Model the fold of this input.
Amino acid sequence: MSFTCHLLVSCCSSCHGPFLLLRSGCSWWLRASSSRPQISSSLRENYRLLQLPEDEPIGDARVKESYLRLAKLYHPDSGASTADAVLFARVEEAYRSVLAHRSEARCRHAAKDVDEEEEDESKIVAPQHRHYLSYEGVGSGTPSQRERQYRQFRVDRASEQVLDYRQREHERAAAAEGALVKRDMRQRSKKIKITQAVERLVEDLIQESMARGDFRNLSGVGKPLNKFEHNPYADPMTHNLNRILIDNGYQPAWVVTQRDIREAAAHIRSALLEGRARLGEPMNQTERGRWEELRARAEEDLVKLNKMVDDFNLIAPMLQMQMVHFSLARETERAEKAARQRQLEQQAERERKREEMKRDNGASAMSRDTKPGLVSWMQSWLR
Done:
């Protein structure tokens, strides 16, 4: 079109009015077109592929919306009839290219605006040499260039300070660690010396006792040791440690846990038995509700008891000592059987007492009947 405008102007150079206006319009269009950013053919193809206008201001949201719409059409996993892996790859590449181009354009505009503002500010500052007094005298060039150089200078200085601080901290930590190592070595050597001194003292005392003959009259001299007759599979070290603890009033953790398990199980069984024994046979609706409440409380207690069993199984010294979980069904059945047995025993006891009372009543009646007869016979005999 520019060639057409020049041709019209050159052909009609004699007429100045309307053709000068046409020439001025063409020159304005040329300046406007030259001020626009030049877009390469590949970038233009990317805009065309994303169905976006090249010469209109568009936002990132519109670019993303267009990309998502095309991705739904061409993505190979979308299941649509228009799915195409090659075309989807081209769309994705075009989307990234357009975003990068828009980002570069924004950076250029921002830098241009900053340079213009700085140029305006530099024009306002009166003395030409005043700006060299700022930024600690670092940098050269325009104020914006010197500001960027000063920022980089501050970053480098901060990095050096951080490195110096870390180096000092490492040196201080290494010195402290060396002091700790030396102290540990001194303490360890001191403990070794004390242990060796005690061992030598004990050995000397044993040798003196043997020389005096203190070990000649001991019971069991010349007989084998029978420490582990009760359990030959026990570890001697574990046995000795447990014996020392028991002799000094301490018990191993598994012993305490086993005792707690036995006590908790006995308490739960007693509660179930007493509660079931107080109910009738068969139970009515109210008694059945009370029995279900009692079973619910027992189930909560059994959960805690089974947790104690798990803890005990982890610390039990032998595999034969492992325990199984307590079951609510088994405990309930056991309580019901024990309650029925108790009821039968109570009924038998009542029957026995009733028979004893009957025998006692019969004997007292016979004694009352025989006493007057004996008195009358003695009176008649005396006569």
